[in-house]
Amino acid sequence: MGKVNVEKNAAKFINQDDIHVTEHDKNLWNARTKRDIAASNIPEWEQLRDLASAIKEHSLTHLDHYIEQFATNAEKRGIKVHFAKDAAEHNAIAYEILSSHNVKSLIKSKSMLQEECEMTPYLEQRGISVLETDLGERIQQLSDQMPSHIVMPAIHQTKEDVAKLFAEKIGTDPNNTDAASLNEAMRNNARPKFLAADAGMTGGNFAIAETGTFVVCTNEGNADLTASLPPLHIASIGIEKILPKVEDLGVFIRLLSRSALGTPATQYTSHFSGPREGSEMHIILTDNGRSARLALDKFWTSLKCIRCGACMNTCPVYRRSSGLAYGATYSGPIGIIIDPTFDASKYSELPFHSSLCGSCSEVCPVHINIAEQIMDWRKEMMKNKEVDFSRRMAFKAAGIMLGNPKLFRAVEKVAYNAINILPKSITENKTLDPWAIHRDLPDVKKETFRQWYIKNKKNEQ
Ligand code: SF4
Predict the structure, then answer these.
(1) Which of 74, 299, 325, 382 could form a disulfide bond with 79, CB atoms 3.0-4.6 angstroms apart?
(2) pLDDT per residue over 63-72, tens digit each?
(3) Residues ≥6 apart with Cβ < 8 Å to 219
């Protein structure tokens, strides 16, 4: 599998026009601003974050115990629990359950785990039609694209894009860009399919070991319809989603939606505690690299993630390049630290797609040291020669120069003189230096800061 070319993917988004980047940046920053207001309204916000982090660290370090407890209690409630070691097993189990019930049409609500397992194409290749019930996911399904954000999957698309897409796919007026009308049109188009579906699949935000129940948080109520209308409900749940007790849940519910969108809670926080009469409920507890990640000293805490998307909303690089630039299920800062655990070579460029400003770590409700892990992934990529030769040499040269003050001063002098003498066709050559494509070098002063400082310091004395 080739390496994801983040730079090329980002350029594709940026070069469309000015509107997409501006809107994208504005909408995400809006979510970040609302998050700040919501957080500042909770005096014990920082204690909640500390508590959430401690609960996650405890459950992750006792995961074998809690997995067993959860499965035993879920089975007592009549839920059938299956274990999948990887994506292939997850998909095979889902297909086996669906085909044994002769399912031809499936509705599903948003699940990053099912995205991660590439479940939809797998089922469709085997004759099962799959319909996304979340509006953003449905837009992405019709666009034949992966989600670009874990909470707002189609945030990189404008209303005009959606109007055009719906006109092509469901016959709406391409000039009608009113969001409410577009929403209504999709509801009218999809609702009959909800009613006729043979089975429903959801994810699970939290699974409670002491009760064997699980919780799904949505804003559209689509997970509830997905789970309640058809006679068969299958939930795909990553093993890291298990919490020890019901009383832990309140901590996360208070943090999740405030961090994601700045709202006090998701519109629907639905608790599933067993099949309805005459129906079946299954859970596929899936590992898919999680236990291997748990063994990674520097990176295991990424498993604490509750998928709120706050790190994406605040990231200056994500906001300007869009989630599709990352070429992976998980994008933004959390994607940078998770994706290489699936395939370090394919995602080796991702850790360099960051300003390392640290804003992601500042907003993360479960205190994941995201910026630090991004830096550690850079080191890993350099050590394992996953970074191309010229960049490796450039870093090596920079390391030697920055570690030697005399050499640094000499190079500084030469570079300074060169910038002042050489024509812009060389100093800002867009072919030699892609950095210059979107930027102009500012006019350089005749005097360096060091020269100015030495001179003025002397004058002061
Ligand atoms: S890493 Fe933290 S901020 Fe980012 S999605 Fe996960 S929980 Fe939210």
Answers:
(1) 74
(2) 999 999 999 9
(3) 261, 266, 267, 268
